[in-house]
Amino acid sequence: MRVKTARLPGKIISLFCATLAIAGCEQKTGQKPEAASSVSPAAKAPESAKKSAASPSAASPKASSSNSELPSPERKTTKTSEASSSAGLAMTAFGARLFRELPSGVNLALSPASVSVALGMTTLGATGKTRSELLKALEFEGDATHGSWGPLLLDWNAQKDSTTVKVVSRLFGEKTVGFREAYLADVKTKYAAPLDLRDFKGAHEKERAAINAWAKEQTHGRIVDLLPAGTVGPRTPLVLANALYFKAKWQNPFDTGRTEPATFHALGKKEVQAPMMRMVETIGYGTVDGARVAELPYEGGRFSMLVVLPTERTGLAALESKLDGAFINECARSTKPTKVDLNLPRFEIRPAGSMSLLKFLGKLGVRAAFSAKTAEFSKMADPKKADFGMYIGDVLHQAFVAVDEAGTEAAAATAVVMVPGAAQPEPVQKML
Predict the structure, then answer these.
(1) How far is Cα 291 from Cα 50, in angstroms, rounded to an integer?
(2) What is the pTM of this model?
(3) What secondary structure does DSSP assign to 62-127, as a single string?
(4) Do residues 70 and 307 make contact, with C-beta atoms less than 8 angstroms apart?
(5) Euclidean distance between the first and the last CA atom of the chain, given in angstroms as a whole number
(6) Do residues 16 and 61 touch, judged by C-beta distance below 8 A?
(7) What gap in Å lies between CA 389 and CA 62, rounded to an integer?
(8) pLDDT tens digits for 333-354?
(9) Is residue 411 within 8 Å of residue 222, measured between CB atoms?
(10) pLDDT tens readout for residues 386-420
(11) Strands 108-110 and 38-41: what pairing?
């Protein structure tokens, strides 16, 4: 399931994406078997609405059944500065590409927003090939995209209605490392991330526990042990962390009395039972390229969830293969007000532990940053004072999503763990 956080001029910003790999449910009411989340226009739905185009959105869940791309909260157009569109568009495109590389056939959630912020802060300290590879993978347009994150984060964190959105970041740095003031100021301005000095040298386990406690607190207890044992040590120079929390009520809640068990076909084959919520409401609905889309608004109207499911029982893999920024935007634009009979599973995707994103980022072209021989992060700290350079040892991520009759709760956290490498030369300013 994907939680989209904002729709800017025809585009989408995604806080979360997730896939629920359950597909093909047979209603006990005797209806024709449908996909895991069944979305179909009610009998008198306008013909024009039925023809609108829709496709999987970056906010679709990756669960255990092939016929269903699940809901994804998205943010509707707001008065956010137009500058924020650069960050939003980059996040949507990056999230779709990264999500496509993740394992299929399992319940899985990802927060493109959390990963983008954590790696964005990291990229500010990079130079040369390391920087260019990260920028390309993140779909960033250099400093313009970095600069657009500030207004966007301020807007997300503004409490404007009953919906809760909280995005916070922090640099946990070894107290003996000489971090560059210019870098610290840049990260604080663009990502609102302060430096929190820590004693990794003298008490790395204590500091690991403290960072985990911070992530748990920021996500209301939903993200636990972001940093597993062994991920930090006495030589750890820096951990760049982000935490995100989202909670919202449906504009039109599901009636709990109508929720009942239904049969699903996991990956289009194995039958499983799951609680199915149902409503008949006028909501956004569309179809495009073999998929159906429904948009469910949250209370206050700032956010909505996009539900995307393939028309074929075994169509989830094909649907996921199409995921990219353009397809997601097309999916969101396709919906029109239509009276819909919606059957949606009540579900929860809870992480078993942190997932390393290194190999998936590698598939997106990020390589130099992961090697002591090639990484260039001298903008972060003075190699002479630190007596070493740095490279990315791991990128750890957890995401939680729960959808029920009342609304949606989602949380995520990302940690970029830097490790010491060879000493690097200071950046040289060219003068003509």
Answers:
(1) 12
(2) 0.82
(3) B-SSTT-B---EEEPP-S--TTHHHHHHHHHHHHHHHHHHS-SSS-EEE-HHHHHHHHHHHHTT--
(4) yes
(5) 52
(6) no
(7) 38
(8) 899 999 999 988 899 999 899 9
(9) yes
(10) 657 899 999 999 999 999 999 999 999 999 999 99
(11) unpaired
Q: What per-residue string of b and e applies to 99-136 under the rule 16 or more CB within 10 Å gives b?
A: bbebebbebbbbbbbbbbbbbbbbbbbbbeebbebbbe
Cβ proximity of 41 and 341 under 8 Å: yes
Question: What is d(CA 58, CA 93) in angstroms, rounded to the nearest whole number?
Answer: 9
The pair of three-digit structure tokens given for residue 399, joined into one six-digit string: 């995401």
In 3D space, the residue among 303, 92, 118 whose CA is nearest the CA of residue 215 turns out to be: 118
- Residues in CB range of 267: below 8 A, 6 or more apart: 21, 23, 64, 65, 66, 105, 314, 316
Phi-psi category of residue 202: left, alpha or beta, with phi > 0 → left and psi -120 to 50 → alpha: alpha
Amino acid at 14: S
Please count the residues of the chain.
432
d(CA 5, CA 321): 23
Tokens of 287: 């179809």
